[in-house]
Amino acid sequence: MEKRLDQLRPGQSGKVKSIDGDCKIKRRLFDMGLTPDADVLLRKVAPLGDPIEVTLRGYELSLRKAEAHAVVLEV
Fold first, then answer.
1. Distance CA 17, CA 34 (A)
2. Which of 31, 44, 51, 68 maximizes the CB count within 10 A of its CB?
3. What is d(CA 31, CA 24) in angstroms, rounded to the nearest whole number?
4. pTM of the model
5. What are the pLDDT digits (tens) for 14-68?
6. What angle do CA 10, 19, 45 make, to 5 degrees?
7. Do residues 65 and 49 make contact, with C-beta atoms less than 8 angstroms apart?
8. Residue 4: which of 65, 48, 47 has the closest Cα?
9. 61 contacts 71 by C-beta, under 8 angstroms
């Protein structure tokens, strides 16, 4: 089942399948470690929904909701 990263609830995880969006967003997310087959765990969501904190590759990463929407996961 596919979901976007911004659709997960805290504690849920998935594997990166692809990244949508323009070249700048793709490049930025790739540089931060969001590459295909990377395991991602949603840790926290801010009270107003932006930003979100995820754990991947052994570190925590904060993303804007718009950036998280570009990440397609296999759940």
1. 10
2. 68
3. 11
4. 0.85
5. 999 999 988 898 999 999 899 999 999 999 999 988 899 999 999 999 999 989 9
6. 20
7. yes
8. 65
9. no
* Contact yes or no for 5/64 (Cβ under 8 A): no
Q: Where are the domains of the chain?
A: 2-74
Contact 57, 38 (CB under 8 A): yes
**Contact of 63 with 54, CB cutoff 8 Å:** yes
Domain 2-74 has CATH 1.10.287.3510: no
| Contact status, residue 42 vs residue 13, Cβ threshold 8 Å | yes
Please say whether the beta carbons of 40 and 24 come within 8 A: no
**In what helix (H) or strand (E) does residue 59 lie, and over which residues does it extend?**
strand 59-63
